[in-house]
Write a structure and sequence with these properties.
The chain is an alpha+beta fold. The chain is built from three helices and three strands. The N and C termini lie far apart (66 Å).
C-alpha cells in the first residue's frame, strides 16, 4: 500500500512516465495478489491444524476415562473416525479426525 502511494505521488508530481507508472502499478498489484493468496493458504493451514489439535484433545479425554467398550457404538465411532480405507481383504486403515492413521489387520 505504501509503495502504491509513493508511486501515485511520483506520477502526480510528474516524475514518472505513464507507461512506467502502469508497469510498476501492475507489478505491485500482482505481488499483492500473490501475498494475499499466500496469507489465505497459511490461515487455512493454521485453522486445520487447530481443528486437528482440538480433535486430538477430545480423543485423549475419551480414552483417559479408562472405561472399555464391550460392544460397537455408532456414536463413538462417528465422533472420532473420519474415514475407513479398505486396503485388502486382510487390512484396512482408519483415518481419525485428529489426523492419525491406524492400520489394522482383519482376522477371519
Amino acid at each position: 500500500m505504501e509503495q502504491r502511494q509513493v508511486l501515485t505521488n511520483l506520477m502526480a508530481g510528474g516524475y514518472l512516465e505513464p507507461a512506467l507508472f502502469n508497469k510498476e502499478s501492475n507489478t505491485l498489484a500482482s505481488e499483492a495478489e500473490t501475498l494475499r493468496q499466500e496469507k489465505d493458504s497459511l490461515v487455512r493451514s493454521l485453522n486445520g491444524d487447530m481443528e486437528k489439535a482440538d480433535e486430538l484433545q477430545k480423543l485423549i479425554r475419551f480414552v483417559s476415562k479408562g472405561t472399555m467398550l464391550t460392544e460397537f457404538d455408532d456414536g463413538v465411532f462417528l465422533e472420532y473416525v473420519d474415514k475407513v480405507t479398505v486396503l485388502s481383504r486382510n487390512e484396512s486403515v482408519f483415518e481419525l479426525k485428529c489426523g492419525l492413521f491406524l492400520r489394522e489387520r482383519l482376522v477371519n
